[in-house]
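Z., the sequence and structure:
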Amino acid sequence: MRVLVTGAAGFIGFNVSRHLLARGDTVLGIDSINDYYDPQIKRDRLALLGQSEGFAFKQVDFSDHVALDAALDSERFDRIVHLGAQAGVRYSIENPRAYLQANLAGHLNMLEVARHRRVEHMVYASSSSVYGGNDTLPFRVEDRVDHPLSLYAATKKADELMSETYAHLYRLPQTGLRFFTVYGPWGRPDMAMWLFTKAIFAGEPINVFGEGNMRRDFTYIDDIVAGIIACADNPPADDGALKAGGSVSPHRLYNIGNSRSEDLGEMISLLEDACGRKAERNLMPMQPGDVRDTFADISAIQNDLGYVPRTTIREGVPRFVAWYRDYHRL
C-alpha cells in the first residue's frame, strides 16, 4: 500500500511514516517545512525517513492548491493520512491568518485530492481543542462542540464539518481523530514538556499557566501512532449505519487519548526526576484560549477497533527526557 502523509516532517507525521515504512508500506511525504518552530528538527526527522527506500518526499505547501496539484500530478497513492496543519492554541491568537490558510484552505485542498483520486480512505487530524468550553468530563465524541475557545479549535471543528460534507456528497470514507496532548521522542519544541525540559536543564524558571491547577490527558506518541494506523487500515463502511460522532455517511470521529486526566504538577515532578534537578515554578494565570482540563473518553475507538493505550506518563516522560538528552548531547 502507498500512503500519502501530509506533515511528514512534523512530530506525528514523522512517527506515522516511520511505522508505515517499518511494516513494508511505501510513503509519499509532503511538508512545507515552515518556520513555526526550528526547521532543523524537521530536517533531522526527514533525514531518518530518507534512509528507507520506501520513502519519497516533496516539499510543498498543501494550502496552495496549484502547487499541490503540480507536486502530486504524477504520483499514485491508495490512502491519505492528513496530519499537516498549523498547530498551537496560543499562536492562533497572534497569527490567525496562518490558521485560515493551512487548516481551512489546506484541509479543503486535501479533500479535493482525495475526491478526485478516489482514495480508499482519508484519515485526518482534528484536536481535543474542539471541546472548548465543555465542562463535562471525560469528553465524548457524542458531545456538542459548539463553543471553541480558540481560533485553532474553530478551524479543527470546521475541518470536521467539511469532511462530513464530502463524505455525504461524494461518499468519501474518512476518519477524523481528536488527539489529546501528544508527547514523546521527536516531539515539538513549542509544547510544554519540551519547554519545561529545556528550562530545567538550563537552570531557568518554567512558566506554569493556570496557576498550576490544570489537568491534561497526556498521550504518548506510540499510542497515538497505533490509533492512527488502526484507523487507516479500517475505513468506515458506507452502509448507512450510525458512526462514532453521529454521521450516517462514511465518516467517523474518534478521540485518541490515554484516557487518564493527569495533574500538570505531577508531569513536572516526573520531568524533575528524569532530569535529576528541581524546576523553579513561576505560576502564571490561564492564557487566552486554554482550557483547564482535558480527559478523553476513548470507548468509541476501543469498541470499534480494539484500541488500548499502553504508556503512562510515568513511563513516557522518562523516555522523552532520555531522547532529549541524546538529541541535544547533554
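The chain has one domain: 2-184+219-259+295-310. Residues 83 and 311 are 22 Å apart (CA to CA).

Let me know what you think.
H.
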